[in-house]
Fold:
Amino acid sequence: MPTQATYDDANLILRLYEMRRDEKLRQAREWFAAHCVASSLEELLRIAPPGSPENAKMRMVVSYWEMAASFVTSGVLNRELFFQSNGELLFVWERVRPVVPEFREFMKNPHAWHNLETVANAYIKWMESNGPEAYAAFQQSVRMAAGGAGPSAHAEAGKAGA
Structure:
């Protein structure tokens, strides 16, 4: 049974949104949506080589959503309220999910991006409980955004509550 969202939850959601408006993070999110599409760690490292500006952008986006997810997994932020306004987390998860096992092995850290994964999986269940075909349609929109990288890719993320 979900707990009732509080004013503190709402204020944290607003703070997370305000952080997403930061110009550097906006640029990183735009780059991520348009270019960060990889099916393996090797491919991700070609797209965003260590030490490159692209790698910094990728890390900024993923670490932002890992941090936001940690608020949910730790119980600091109401999950239901978070799901209602943060669909971009699921977009990011769909983009990095194929590389997670290799990334964890490479980093020797089985918990890398664990909060992101945990919240994304709960988000998927929540989404499906509200509309059985919603997640499949969302995945399709992410695949379409990957095929047509550019401003429309970010728009697809925005449709998901970004």
